[in-house]
Fold this protein.
Amino acid sequence: MKRYVYITAIFMCTLWSCEPDDICIENTPGTPKMIVVFYDHSQPEIKKEVSDLQIIGLNQETAFYVGTSDSVSIPLKTKELTSTYTFKKVENTLTHEESWAFEYNTHDVFISRACGYKKLFSNLKSERLNSMVWIKDLEIINDSISDVNTTHVKIYH
Amino acid sequence: MTQFQTLTQLMLKYIIKYSTLLICTLIWGQNASKIDSISNEIRYGIRLGMDMSKPIRMLIEPDYKGLELVADYRLTKDLYIAGELGNETKVVNKDAMHFKTTGTYLKLGLDYNVFNNWEGMDNLIIVGFRYGFSQHEQNLLGYTIRNMDDYWNQNNDALLSSPQNFSGLNGHWIELQIGIKAELLRNLYMGISIQMHRLLADKDPENFENLFIPGFNKVLTDNPYGAGLNYTISYQLPIFKK
């Protein structure tokens, strides 16, 4: 009987010290990014790559994105309700620049003990900060950003 | 993590130390009883006591406060109706969360003694079952925002200007207890028990979770099980003998 009590005691302590959920698993979704997809303005159904695209946040030294692509996911500021980005396009050694401000509301959603909360965005609005250069139109097709599988913004150029 | 492991190790040390002590007492007590040869009357009464592991835990864990009163009443030779009433406060500032839980709990159930005493002795090896419930509140003091991108160099710690209070929470669970009680002096008992509990239901705070339930201890995310321990000193108020 004594032995059983010992074994049970040790077994239960082992159970107790086992805490797998103290680790936030790498691929747990956190704060989502704003997904921007570029479309051809003459054929609004068709995606169109932007060549030599650079995306730079306002007052940031480095570009967030450099390359050629038809879609980009862009991080929004989590502590402020506006994020401003400059979209630069290089064409025939000429740089075309446009700045857009994105405004939104935020709220925090609980994930778990180890991962904490994630920031979700809603009521997304955009504002062009200069006259039209190369972006013909910007359309917000999903004004709440809560996952990573939806297109939120369409840019026609 | 390390703090908790240290605690577990400490508890394990206590269990081994005290159960050795208890078993020695049991054996020693039985040897003595042969000489005394007291009558084989069974004492019936209410046993009242306190969990001493909580004050010990308060000494080694600065963010913890707890008190637990225990009681049982003998129904038959081996069967007792038993319960625990307690209050716990726990502050956790670990991983991504900083919160404080405060509340009261009550556990009620039966204890069955599987130990065959020598005549006149009253020691127990207990297998017990409890239904437990808590009434508690949780205060969210701070948390971390999970943000894998730091392009904007945003601080991911969310500071709350005032704690967010979630009251009216509760938890319900069932519990299996295994323990020993030894009569050290006449009517004075020392006991140790280990509890394994399974959460049945709980009322979670909105946009948050019960991460600690008084009486139940730490709540794991995808696992309804938990464990606890108590080390009691109790006194039996004898009512009658049979």
About this structure: Chain A touches chain B through 42 residues (CB under 8 Å).
